[in-house]
Amino acid sequence: MQTTITQLLNLLIAPPGNLVYHIVLAFSVAMALQAASFNAPGMEKAQNRRTVVGLAVVLAFQILLFIASGLAWQGLFNAHLLIPPLDRAMPFLSLAWIIWMWASPAPSRSADVGVGLLTVLGLVMLAFTWSYWVSQGGVLSFNGTWLDWAWQIASLTLALIGLIGFTLRRPAGWGIGLGFLILVILGSATHLLFAQPDADLSGYVRLFTLCAFPLLPTLAQRLQAQTRLPATPTAAVASVPSDTEGRKRLSGEPRTIFAWLQLANQSDPSQIGIALTRAVSQTMLADFTFLVYTNPETSSMLIECGYDLIREEPVAGTSLGINNVPALANALQRGKPLRLSTNGTPPQDLVSLARVFGLSEAGHLLAIPVMAKPGVWGAGLVLLTPYSNRLWIAEDQNFLNSMSEAFSQVLQRAAQNSEFKFQFEQSRDEINQLQRDLEAMQAEAEHMRGMAETHPLQNLISPDNEKSNEFSTLINLQQESQETIQRLQAENDELRSLIEREHPVEEVTKDHGYAEEEMRLTLEEMAHLQNSLAESNNRIAVLEKQIETGERTPDEEHEMIASIYQELRQPLSSIVGYTDLLLGESVGILGALQRKFLERIKTSSDRLRNLIDDLLRLSNLQSGSMELSPQRVTLEEVLDQALSETSGFLRDKSITLQLDLPEELPSLNADRDALQQVLVQLIQNAGAVTPVDGTVSLRVEVKESESEQPVVSLQISDMGGGISPEDLPRVFSRRYRADNALIQGIGDTGVGLSIVKTLVEAHGGRIWVDTTPGEGNTFCVLLPLLPDQTLEDKTPA
């Protein structure tokens, strides 16, 4: 029981539950103000004016507190310093004006002076409380401080004075006013006796205030009863209220308050729409309330859910064509409210809605647009009155339209929760699939491990065996991938520890919870990827043994490598996806250092992906499965695509790219993708070895002679310091990393340049490197032009 009460109190003082508190108070005051305004013809003008003015002032106090709470919730102000003084002052000032209205309905100079002095006193106390509380730095919670005691004692004193005044004067409706003040006294007294020491706001005061404010509409009823004429036949006829004058416009009953509390506490995205329609229907006294979405692409309107106030049960969703409700669909798509009446010939929209729900008539309609997505109209709340035949007026429309933004936030939060739930289910299914694959690979690894112990890997790699040497390069690529994954793991651990240091568990918000969950999923994917790499090493070892013994054909070898490639790509794509999600800050705001770590993770992941791509390319070269598709290719287009792909890489290092191009660029008979890969690989190699703020040069030249076929020369120069003479023979070898250290002056992994050489030679061209020790390298590529091409057959640069 104690836990339930504590949860209810925390719901009233912490966002977003405190939104219900502010809404209920605003609804209660607005309903009383509306009743007083509509009762104006039936009561004395002076008394009505005093009631309207007093309720307007109380409503202004509540709106001020609501706006301040909302801004503090959004982080625009320090809630710990701003809200506690304001939360004590606004109820005190509201209580003063409510006692003034209830105890002195008729004009009274002394009562007017008294409420004025109390207002000034409350504002002075508020200013003093603010200045003192800010000067103290807000080290302690506001509850239990001497300032808190002062405000509560002031409220108790004011309520007791009002209680004595009601008892002595006994104005009309004084019994309900007495109950109002008793609830206020109980709230303050309970807070003083059982204050929550670790909070800034009082849950007890808010709970009893929530029970007291729905009594305010009786103010207008009391004044109407005071001025009602005698029950003569003529007066009886004259006093029959019209639909817009006598009928209650808004509901402040306990079940209405409970409906809004249920909406604030609803966490299931599928039930938020039902909770919203129930709360609106009970507040506005609408027979039916529906949540609808328009879809212009399919020309349909989806009625997602609704609530039947008469039967007090949800209504199942349905759909209908936009052409059946043209006015309603047009208003919602343009973000405009709409009122339709059945007086005279009913509009097509009402006829269609009545037919869909099996009603004889739809009654009067009120539609309020909401944003299901930020900045996008098309959804809305539709209220119908087929049974009560209530006529909606401008005040109803304005009131609901003022709440449109709050309704939009509720629906957008529900959509976000639904999307996160879907992503979670999808990730869980993917993890389960990866777990099953891992178990199968572990079973296979146990079998392969026994074979590896019988035939050690070192005995399978023979210096005289060309294929074994090539697969040793694959092993080195796998080892490098393993090192990259371990580095990613370490960076993720460091990022997790940083988040825990900067945001202790008790202060972590919901957004950070999402970020932690995404980080956990990323780490799990990396663990799966690491296991996959380990098993891939075993499978490569078995593959080498089978090659040496002749048990596998080249096609089977390529198929095995392609299978390993796919197994590595799947978890790596998940890592990249989760990293992009975190960098997009859709699940939480990142600090500068956190973003730096995530960018390093993304860079390392891209590096690992390039290594895996090199693994597949090397397999294609060894198996002879790489096929070229020669066609007429414009060199200008290939250069543009290659420069676009490498510009980001060069920009990150602030490297300047100098272009030396002829006025006209020729066309080639080549494979477009292969030629682009050659240019990208050479530019990336030059950028990798060139220092920051360095320069990379690209020169294109057309050479033609009478005795030889015309060719195009591509020269890519860097500032990497050059290559030593003894390392030059191994530049285009794809095995230099297996047995030797890295070549100084080369930024390639050892496979990319080998692939470049193979692609160039497949096009009938040549490639070589000129080096200047201490300065840099120049990679030169010669490619033949089209056989029938002359210098006149060129494309302008």
Give structural notes.
The protein contains 25 helices and 16 strands. Helix 2 runs parallel beside helix 9 and helix 6 (146-169) runs antiparallel to helix 7. The N and C termini lie far apart (81 Å). The protein is of the alpha+beta class and 797 residues long. Strands 1, 2, 3, 4, 5, 6 and 7 form a seven-stranded antiparallel beta sheet that branches. The protein has a five-stranded mixed beta sheet with strand order 9-12-13-15-14, with helices on one face. Strands 8-11 form a two-stranded antiparallel sheet. It is elongated and about 120 Å long. It folds into four domains: 2-225, Rhopdopsin 7-helix transmembrane proteins (Up-down Bundle); 258-411, Beta-Lactamase (2-Layer Sandwich), CATH 3.30.450.40; 455-623, Four Helix Bundle (Hemerythrin (Met), subunit A) (Up-down Bundle); 631-796, Histidine kinase-like ATPase, C-terminal domain (Heat Shock Protein 90). One of its GO terms (cellular component) is plasma membrane. Residues 417-553 form a coiled coil. Its EC number is 2.7.13.3. One of its GO terms (molecular function) is phosphorelay sensor kinase activity.
What is the structure about, briefly put?
The protein is built from 25 helices and 16 strands. With 797 residues, it is of the alpha+beta class.
CATH class of the largest domain: Mainly Alpha
CATH architecture of the largest domain: Up-down Bundle
Return the structural class: alpha+beta
What's the story with the biggest beta sheet? Answer: 7 strands, antiparallel
* Alpha-carbon distance between the two ends: 81 Å
Arithmetic mean of pLDDT: 75
Radius of gyration, in angstroms, nearest whole number: 39 Å
Count the E strands: 16
Q: Could you please say which CATH topology of the largest domain applies here? A: Rhopdopsin 7-helix transmembrane proteins
> How many H/I helices?
25
